[in-house]
Amino acid sequence: MASNTLHQRKQPGAPDTVYQVIKTVGKVTGGMVLGMTMLTSSVVAGGLVGLAISFRNLPDVRILRSYVPSETTHIYDVKGALLTSIHGEANREVVPLDKISPDLKRAVLAIEDSYFYSHHGVNPGAVLRAFLANWHKGETVEGGSTLTMQLVKNLFLTPKRAFSRKVAESVLALRIEQIFSKNQVFEMYMNQVYWGHNTYGAETAAESYFGKSSADLTLAESAMMAGLIQAPESLSPFIDYKAAKRRQATVLRRMRELNWITPQQEAVARKQTIKLGKITSFQGSTIPYVTEAAVQELTKRFGKDAVLKGGMRVQTTVDTKLQRLAEDVVKRGHESLLNQGIYADQMALVAVDPRTHFVKAMVGGVDYRKSQYNRAMQSLRQPGSAFKPFVYYTAFASGRYTPDSTVSDSPVSYPDGYEYYTPQNYDGSFHGAMTIRTALAQSRNVPAVRLGQDVGLNKVIDVVRTIGIRSPIEPVVSLPLGSVDLTPLEMAGAFATFASNGWYSETTLIVQVTDSAGNVLLDNTPKPQLVLDPWATAALNDALQGVINGGTGVAARLDRPAAGKTGTTSSERDIWFVGYVPQLATAVWVGNDDYRPIGKGATGGGYVAPVWRDFMQQALQGVPIERFRPPSEFNRP
User: Fold this and answer.
1) Engineered SS bond to 351: which of 361, 510, 533, 592, CB 3.0-4.6 Å?
2) H or E element that contains 193
């Protein structure tokens, strides 16, 4: 910032005495002269404090020592690309004074308060000139506010124009300048001032109007932006470019009159082509299902006000490239289902990295513009047979079963409340004794129910709780067949633990959160824990590969080893495919929001597995083929 002497020069044409001011506005009455003389004397003598004795309820300006202005929160993808910016009423990014272009600082001072560095919060001459002009017109036509008074008005007072408010402004301005240095006041002003289109502060305004940081503004851009403070919306170059240029010329002329720029600099700046940016406030996200989910997670942890006003820098786990791919796959897959006579209005997809449990892509519906409901994390739907792997893992972890153990696919009934429950297979048949591997591959219901009873449903529930499923679960006899409501996110996260061979971290959409100064508020660096038995997990992975290689999920077959499970509810209201490779686990769900049946013969293997394959095949391009570790590498429990 320029030294104080820069601001102590006499303004060209500025009157020296109160009587010169009086001459400039024409004939005045004796009462006016007396009144003006008294006002001037009170200002010079510090009498404004005396005039404000009645203002006993004025705010204590010392609170500004701990004042933190509201700031815009920015959300990024995992690679640092900006996804969206969210804020409350004020879209603002706070920057230090020394990070603002010197040209902008001089331009603002020139047009708003050229004596800023020489007065003590109130400029008596400016107040007097404004008083005379307003008295002469019979209304408020000119302001005498210094930058400090403007800051006071923005922070503490209402915009109502009244003599009493102007006195209050003056008193508070004097108090502020007793406590804070000039540079501190100027920094608060530059970060607080309103620049139009819901942008507050120099940094956000520069990004909006010119698409660049306030540190990089040219003289021409600085003069245009400084000129907007007087009437931000009506002078906005987005609304009236010619008016903005006229105001820019006024600012440049004032800077030249003050000898803060040369005539040559003024001429060059006037001719410079201005490249405008775009209005940045309240712009939607490019991937709204993800950013809305991230905001929910942040709000749950930090509270709504902190998210809207805290100036957070949020790095999400999502890869924008994968997200775009997932959105395209869902849109294309849904159109294909409709063309095949499957009457489902919605589809959701969630992809999770098993190594970190970071969500890499999330699509909560077919079209966000038509429905903002995020089915990927909010819709509780029955997973059908996609729940069976939890039962089979529990059986393997008991040490009493292997994928080649024999189970019975034969009629059986179990007490269920006041009645008996008799499980049926999808095709109504029974195949007698078979291996667990075959039962899984063919998605036989009866063997799964038998195993659930044998190992204990409460143990199955313990397993799913251990790997991140939090939705309510009751130990009903039909639980192994998916008679529980879960979200696609829960399913993808749980299967990711199978893919990682039993290593679990909490599934999250957020990598890290910092404040605008770079202080870390949240660090979600994965802290994986081995929560499942390695042999039992490897055995399950081995068996689930059979689902894709020759079972109900053959339509999901990739060019690499993959494991997964189809899911179809008996009511044909929900169809699923959840599967994984060691580097990526993905759940896809299809259904209707009103729970109408999708259509006779609709199965996860027939209609959802191809959608899953479409996504995985593209998502894994360039990713090395990795095989699952075989059970032989581990000790059987």
Assistant:
1) 361
2) none
Nearest CA to 50 out of 59, 64, 39, 66 is that of 39
What are φ and ψ of residue 396, in 5° steps?
Answer: -65, -40
Long-range residue pairs from 41-45, CB within 8 A, at least 24 positions apart, any chain: 43/122, 43/124, 43/127, 43/128, 44/124
- Please determine, for residue 396, whether its predicted confidence score (pLDDT) is greater than 70: yes
The answer to whether 475 touches 459, Cβ cutoff 8 Å, is no
Q: Output the average pLDDT for the chain.
A: 85
CB 540 within 8 A of CB 436: no
The helix (H) or strand (E) run that includes residue 585 is: strand 584-591
**252 near 270, Cβ under 8 Å?**
yes
Separation between Cα atoms, residue 381 and residue 374, nearest integer Å? 13
Reading the block at residue 109, the tokens are 């001072």
Q: What integer pLDDT is reported at residue 144 of this predicted model?
A: 66
pTM of the model: 0.71
- What is the torsion angle, in degrees rounded to the nearest 10, for the CA atoms of residue 77, residue 80, residue 85 and residue 91? 160
Q: What is the number of other CB atoms lying within 10 angstroms of the CB of residue 307?
A: 24
d(CA 493, CA 362): 12
Tokens of 152: 């006071």
Cα-to-chain-centroid distance, residue 613: 30
For 622, phi and psi rounded to 5 degrees?
A: 85, -5
As a whole number of angstroms, the distance between CA 480 and CA 451 comes to 8
**Start-to-end CA span in the chain (Å):** 72
> How far, in Å, CA of 36 to CA of 44, rounded?
12
Any residues with CB less than 8 A from the CB of 295 and at least 6 apart, and which? 75, 86, 307
Check: CB of residue 377 under 8 Å from CB of residue 487: yes
* Token representation of residue 576: 């699923």
Which is nearest to 587 in space by CA: 602, 570, 604, 569? 604
* Segment 39-47 long-range contacts (CB within 8 Å, at least 24 positions apart): 39/127, 39/128, 39/131, 40/124, 40/128, 43/122, 43/124, 43/127, 43/128, 44/124, 46/174
Q: What's the angle, vertex CA 303, arms to CA 189 and CA 193, rounded to 5?
A: 10
Count of alpha carbons within 13 Å of 486, Cβ hemisphere only? Answer: 35
pLDDT at 66: 62
Q: How far apart are CA 12 and CA 9, in angstroms?
A: 9
Q: Hey, what domains does the chain have and what are their CATH numbers?
A: 4-67+96-271 (1.10.3810.10), 324-633 (3.40.710.10)
DSSP state of 379: -
CA gap 257, 263 in Å, rounded? 9
CA 119 to chain centre: 43
The partner residues of 315 in beta bridges, in order of sequence, read: 76, 512
